[in-house]
Amino acid sequence: MRNVSLGLFVLLGLFVLNIWMENASSNFYEKWIEPILDAKITLATLVLIGAAVYYIINLVIQNKENQINSLKVQMSSYEDQLKEETKGLWKHFKDLNRFNRQETIINTMKILVDNEEYVIAAQLYEYTLKETPIHTSIKVSHRDGYVAEGEKLNALLQEYYLIDYDTYETFKKACKELIRDKNSMFQFIEFEKSKLDEKISIN
Questions:
Q1: Dihedral sign, Cα of residue 90, residue 95, residue 101, residue 103
Q2: Residue 103 has what pLDDT?
């Protein structure tokens, strides 16, 4: 495709040159063009001149294509670099956001404890549930906390609790009905409280 375009370009140039020569002034023709035309040029020389012109033009076009390809490779490299830098910035932003959130939680705990007379500490825990057909395991882990000055308080760093399957299913059902009917939750609490009271009285 490039060779065809180059050939058309050469033909167009010769056509324009022919028109210009036909309409040029006679002085210019007699001084510059006629001596060249009068000179005896062999077919081999003409072919060599045409080949040289073709080679030079082809070399210029090829050089431009190489420059374009080089720019494309460079742009692709810049795009990859930009993606990596964007990932790094996003990770940095998430780390900063996590730090700011933790700082906000601690400051809120501090304000609560320092401004409430009967609150000596505030602690934040997270929990994870693992359900099995027999029981539900609850893992409780300490996240953050703040204790009032002069108070002694230990934090529960990590603990596991086991709840039997029926109790946990009843609790989940009561939670679902809590929005429209609070009686299910109250009944669940009363029932579990009575079981605890019974264990305490036995001991």
A1: negative
A2: 87
Whether 72 is covered by a domain: the verdict is no
Instruction: State pLDDT tens for residues 126-137.
Output: 999 998 888 889
Task: Give first-to-last CA distance, the chain, whole Å.
Answer: 97
Q: Could you tell me if residue 135 is inside a domain? A: yes
Q: Residue 24's pLDDT band (boundaries 50, 70, 90)?
A: low
63 pLDDT more than 70: yes
Q: How many CB atoms within 10 Å of residue 57?
A: 14
Q: Number of folded domains in the chain? A: 1
Contacts of 167 (CB under 8 A, 6+ apart): 192
Q: Which residues of 130-162 are buried (b: 16+ CB within 10 A; e: fewer)?
A: eeeeebbebeeeeebbbbeeeeeeeeeeeeeee
Q: Within its chain, how far is the Cα of 106 from the centroid?
A: 30
Query: What three-state secondary structure class fits 117?
Result: coil
For residue 10, pLDDT over 70 is answered with no
Query: Domain residues for 164?
Result: 120-202
Judge whether 178 lies within some domain: yes
Report pTM: 0.44
Torsion sign across C-alpha atoms 177, 179, 181, 186: positive
Question: Rounded distance, CA 192 to CA 178, Å?
Answer: 17
Q: How many CA atoms lie within 13 A of 26 on its CB side?
A: 0
Residue with tokens 């359900």: 131
